[in-house]
Amino acid sequence: MIIGAGPAGLMAARKIAGEGYSVLIVEKERDLGIKPCAEAIAESDFVVAEIPASSQFVTNNIDGAYVYPSDESQSTKIMGKGYILNKPLFLYALASKAIAHGAELLMRGEVREIVLENGRAVVAKYEHKGQMLQTSFKILIGADGTGSITSRSCGFERGKYEVIPAIQYVMVNCNVTEKEMIRLYFGDVAPKGYAWIFAKNKYVANVGIGTLGSHERQYLDKFIRNHPAIFDSASIIKEGAGLVPVGGQIQTVKENVMLCGDSAGQVVPVTGAGIGTGMIAGKIAGETAVLALKADEMSLLNEYPKRYAIMESRMHGDFNMLGGLISY
Length: 328
Hints:
The chain is 27% helix and 32% strand. By secondary structure, it is α/β, with parallel strands linked by helices. β1, α1 and β2 form a beta-alpha-beta unit. It is elongated and about 60 Å long.
């Protein structure tokens, strides 16, 4: 069973179902991709997703990034290929692949309780359209975000799990020159925070800020006021807020349970980027689950954090490249 139908959960489901095992994905939201997201992805992330980049869910091609310190005149230009997504449509594509392999996806199913027996998770009780249902399983994957019921119910060590609030506006008529370049602002934009401007196309841009503490809306509004050349003619058409893990990865395996993506703190340092890291984690978790199921040996799940650590070290080694900056 998998809780959460984001990039991590959908990748894990595809890998497990593709080997002929039954997989139920339970997602509490009414739609995929509701969480606010800057929607950028590195070119290499499509290799992980095992689907080609497509105009059906790619809204802008990215050639690089401008990274701004407090003195914005001293910006750094980084070249590298990437894309801005329509994230819901991208998740639909991932869901399509998982379901085609045999996975079952249940929307608007909120897990209320995870039952443990002798330390192992054995049953999940969830509410779906007013009914209480339950499912038993051999392996549970929690890809259920920063509020993960999986990690809390199954006793994962969360001592260093830390999040910051982020808020994002979708804006029209922003005067963004070089729309193929994303923009990241550090320094004085907010306490231990960062801001971003990602053009989705010539009409629309994702504009957001993440900051330690609170008052993120005030900091974002101030950021917009301080950049009149970009925003004087712009209007907000949508806004959303969420939490971004910044404390690093926590414990990811306990007995027959694995955590993936935001629930495990698996994001790129500094930026809180999560689409690419989530897909990598889900893919590895799914493949590891298959090994454990085939051997009927749950201790094999401990290969998952080992394999992810190797991938994480590669990601950190390439952090100066665009891929480490834009997958959010």
